[in-house]
Specification:
Shape: globular
Largest sheet: 4 strands, antiparallel
Number of helices: 2
Number of strands: 26
Helix content: under 10%
Mean pLDDT: 80
Structural class: mainly beta
Strand order of the largest sheet: 3-4-5-6
Radius of gyration: 20 Å
Distance between the termini: 24 Å
């Protein structure tokens, strides 16, 4: 999803319809829906906060930033009890970009520390870290016994981590790290592959991966815990698809892109159309239609109830992109 990620700088934890549905409460029977919004705040001397993940305990991780451009960023951990906390950096690290990417239900956090905007040849430019309240920040490369570039994307409740690693100036390759069995490298997914990278992992060990070919095309795959591989396609007649997340029942959420000609044959001119979708484990696919006033949707994540969160998007309105909550059962927004 890195191709389509945008910065979310209005920072809040929102408890609303999705929480009621998760608790089994009949939303239609409630007289009113109350939205509780909590400002996450920022770390000292930082101007904005970007949340990247939230676990079932309501703990949030992400990064905070300064004055834009190449100013340093710092990883944070937020909880209702302790508010926002700086996770720190790998001891001795000389890199200036830190972003916590994911958190599991045990409070284990993974993220990346890099050289923001200053890629240097023949040097390590990005390092991954793992954090817990008990251990603090640890260099993930030490756990892998690898000291090249490492980028991590996700961690599940079993502590399994997916990421990519490369030697200096080398192509990235996906790995799965299991705290009990160590590292499994995925190898190639397509002929003439130049690199691959993970997107997400669920609690069954199913991993979403994107693979890049020599010709510049990319392909999306689901790798099961037994090593079997299934190609994941998006909406029909699209020009490309970016996957975002997978839940524990095998539903995949993503975004298909249309260039020049839209999904209904319409002329897009110089614009592109982004249409989100939910793909079930049996291969059936549902498009997430845009909410009124917006042309497109950018899905970000899906939970085990098939509920999707993301952002709205409009070329016409040129207005701020509001977040949306969408239920795949009811096919409606809230």
């Amino acid at each position: 999803m890195s191709n389509l990620k945008t910065k979310m700088q209005n920072l809040a934890v929102i408890s609303s319809t999705s929480v009621l549905m998760t608790l089994g409460i009949n939303v239609s029977a409630t007289a009113a829906i109350v939205y509780d919004i909590t400002d996450l705040g920022t770390l000292p001397d930082q101007l904005y906060t970007i949340p990247n993940d939230i676990n079932d305990a309501g703990q949030v991780v992400g990064r905070t930033g300064g004055n834009g451009g190449f100013s340093p960023t710092r990883s944070f951990f937020w909880s209702q009890e302790n508010r926002i906390t700086d996770l720190g950096i790998i001891p001795g690290a000389y890199l200036n970009y830190s972003a916590a990417e994911a958190i599991n239900n045990s409070g284990q956090v993974v993220g990346n520390i890099g050289r923001l905007g200053l890629i240097k040849p023949n040097e390590v430019n990005i390092r991954a870290f793992v954090w817990s309240r008990e251990t603090g920040v640890r260099d993930f490369g030490n756990l892998l016994n690898f000291f090249g570039n490492i980028n991590v994307n996700d961690i599940n409740n079993a502590g399994q981590v997916v990421g990519s690693k490369s030697a200096v100036n080398g192509a990235g390759r996906t790995f799965l790290w299991n705290p009990e069995t160590g590292v499994t490298e995925f190898g190639n997914f397509i002929p003439n592959e130049t690199s691959n990278a993970p997107i997400a992992i669920n609690n069954l060990g199913q991993t979403l991966v994107v693979a890049y070919s020599e010709s510049g095309y990319y392909f999306n795959f689901l790798r099961s815990s037994d090593g079997s591989i299934t190609e994941i396609n998006g909406l029909p007649n699209s020009d490309g698809t970016d996957l975002a997340d997978i839940n524990d029942v095998g539903q995949v959420v993503g975004i298909s892109t249309y260039i020049g000609t839209g999904p209904n044959g319409e002329d897009l001119g110089t614009d592109d159309a982004f249409i989100s979708f939910v793909r079930s484990s049996n291969g059936s696919i549902i498009a997430i239609d845009p909410i009124p006033g917006y042309e497109y949707t950018l899905a970000r994540g899906i939970n085990n109830l098939g509920q999707v969160v993301g952002q709205s998007y409009s070329y016409v309105a040129q207005a701020p992109a509001p977040a949306f909550f969408w239920s795949s059962k009811q096919h409606r927004y809230t």
